[in-house]
UniProtKB/TrEMBL annotation:
Organism: Halorientalis brevis
Keyword vocabulary terms for this entry: Chromophore, FAD, Flavoprotein
Family: Belongs to the DNA photolyase class-1 family.
Residues with site note (Electron transfer via tryptophanyl radical): 319, 372, 395
Protein name: Cryptochrome DASH
Transmembrane segments: none
Lineage of the species this protein comes from: Archaea, Methanobacteriati, Methanobacteriota, Stenosarchaea group, Halobacteria
Keyword field contains Flavoprotein: yes
Binding site for FAD: 235, 248-252, 288-295, 385-387
InterPro entries in the record: Cry_DASH, Crypto/Photolyase_FAD-like_sf, Crypto/Photolyase_N_sf, Cryptochr/Photolyase_FAD-bd, Cryptochrome/DNA_photolyase_1, DNA_photolyase_N, Rossmann-like_a/b/a_fold
Length: 475
């Protein structure tokens, strides 16, 4: 069917490469109206009291929308930007341009589905259709050996089944042209208009990477990581690192906003294997992308059950509420240096390593038994790479309410010594402990008063005493 005009509603797919929504609209219509909607609900307060979108992610999103607009302008097109509920804005835009249909990405988590349903209903009332496409995973759900509703709830058998039976589809090319007539574009809302302090954000010199939003920045990082820095060669050995840009790919913020397609990354891994080397490390980056897929499909299967205190397994655990303890955790003041360093990195930069995330989540949920959902909600607010399925799925996994029934408690002290043996990471984020000999950096409470005086660190004054005795917690 040929349509005259199609609205393309960009959601978490802020790119032109491998974008099935855009490709399908281009195949069907002769004129495209690209739209991005800043939804006030995305900037509201969560039920746990945190801003749903923190300032750093809001900035990354603005940059990504700006970049999308610039790329579209390069193709003689435009990006219409609006502020409002999608179910109000999209019918209005569709009417304004007399569009035949609206095309968009479909997403698996409940709130995103709810928004999609509201848009579909509002368009139907106008006699228009919403055409959706699944565009954000490595494997397409239609190709899975088992339908999403019946997939295994445990990662390993699911992955083995998938790897043995299917291949990711090839990424779709970017279009050369996006035909659009003159469009009423509007300004991209400022941070102040989105409810944030407008003062410049600044960048912490200790940040692992300068994350700039947008498709070009994401593709540049992919090329830098894989080809220029040759990091894929040893990813499996470095991926548990804590310091610097290259221990892991740092592609997550672009993946979360859809500035990068996982199939594009997979295609680069494939090319690297053909042109340079194929080893455990090249396999492992695809393995991590499969984890990402797993949580997306798990949300398609279980939906809102992921947000229950007992999670998808309805586990019977008494979760505690303790505002003071939570605030110490969130502000990096627990007195356990490895936890505090990671939380301070998150607060200062919007990023934390996977190793750090596992440990701080386990500390909150397993050592303190504080409601794991408050931690997940705090991460939702702070992370630049926040993705509802990856975040809540991983939190539930660590808290024992998600996709694995084994005990997921991390021994934080053991982990600290193993992954930060010289205490370099901890002292980077806790300068008050700088100068302590390595044997005390991870366990400053082992210093007696005389040793504290010798090293100029007074516990309880320069740095907090630990809020939980970890040795007791492990018992
Ligand atoms: C408590 C907790 C919360 C998390 N919240 C998020 C989140 O909101 N958004 C997010 O993208 N990741 C989340 N992760 C997963 C993981 O920590 C990050 O994806 C990773 O640290 C991002 O850095 P990277 O891009 O350098 O990762 P790499 O090691 O280079 O991995 C490449 C990509 O694989 C995917 N990936 C890797 N590990 C995981 C995983 N365990 N689960 C799902 N996908 C994975 C990511 O898309 C990542 O960008 C969370 C993990 C934990 C334990």
């Amino acid at each position: 069917m040929t349509e005259d005009t199609a609205v393309v509603w960009f959601r978490s797919d802020l790119r032109l490469h491998d974008n099935a929504t855009l490709t399908r609209a281009l195949e069907s219509a002769t004129r495209i109206v690209p739209v991005f909607v800043f939804d006030p609900d995305a900037f509201a307060t969560t039920t746990f009291g945190f801003p749903k979108t923190g300032r750093r992610r809001a900035q990354f999103l603005r940059e990504s929308v700006q970049a999308l607009r610039a790329t579209l302008r390069g193709l003689d097109s435009e990006l219409v930007v609006r502020y409002g509920r999608p179910s109000t804005v999209l019918p209005a835009v569709a009417s304004e341009y007399d569009a035949d249909a609206v095309y968009s990405q479909t997403l698996p988590a409940p709130e995103e589905r709810h928004v999609e349903t509201a848009v579909r209903t509002a368009l139907r009332d106008q006699g228009r259709a919403l055409q959706t496409a699944w565009t954000h995973t490595l494997y397409h759900p239609a190709d899975l050996p088992t339908p999403v509703q019946n997939i295994d709830d445990t990662f390993t058998p699911w992955r083995q089944d998938v790897e043995a039976t299917i291949e990711p589809r090839e990424p779709l090319p970017s279009p050369n042209k996006v035909p659009s007539s003159t469009l009423d574009v509007s300004e991209i809302p400022t941070l102040a208009a989105l409810g944030f302090d407008d003062a410049p954000l600044g960048r912490d010199q200790r940040a692992v990477y300068a994350f700039d939003g947008g498709e070009t920045a994401g593709l540049d990082r992919l090329a830098e990581y894989v080809w220029d820095r040759d990091c894929l060669r040893e990813y499996k050995e470095t991926r548990n690192g804590l310091l610097g840009a290259d221990y892991s790919s740092k592609l997550s913020p672009w993946l979360a906003h859809g500035c990068l397609s996982p199939r594009q990354i997979y295609a680069e891994i494939d090319r690297y294997e053909r042109e340079r080397v194929e080893n455990d490390s090249t396999y492992w980056l695809g393995f991590e992308l499969a984890w990402r897929d797993f949580f997306q499909f798990q949300f398609a299967k279980h939906g809102a059950a992921f947000f229950r205190p007992g999670g998808i397994r309805d586990r019977d655990v008494e979760w505690h509420t303790d505002e003071d303890a939570f605030s110490r955790w969130a502000n990096g003041q627990t007195g356990v240096p490895f936890v505090d360093a990671n939380m301070r990195e998150l607060n200062a930069t919007g990023y934390m390593s996977n190793r750090g995330r596992q440990n701080v989540a386990s500390f909150l949920a397993n050592d303190r038994r504080l409601d794991w959902r408050t931690g997940a909600s705090y991460f939702e607010s702070r992370l630049i790479d926040y993705d509802v399925c990856s975040n809540w799925g991983n939190w539930a996994y660590v808290a024992g309410t998600g996709n694995d029934s084994r005990d997921k408690r991390f021994d934080v002290l053991w982990q600290a010594h193993r992954y930060d043996p010289a205490g370099e990471y901890v002292t980077q984020w806790l300068p008050e402990l700088d100068g302590l000999p390595p044997e005390y950096v991870h366990e400053p409470w082992r210093m007696d008063t005389q040793t504290q005086r010798t090293h100029g660190v007074e516990l309880g004054s320069d740095y907090p005493r630990p809020m939980v005795a970890l040795e007791d917690a492990s018992e």
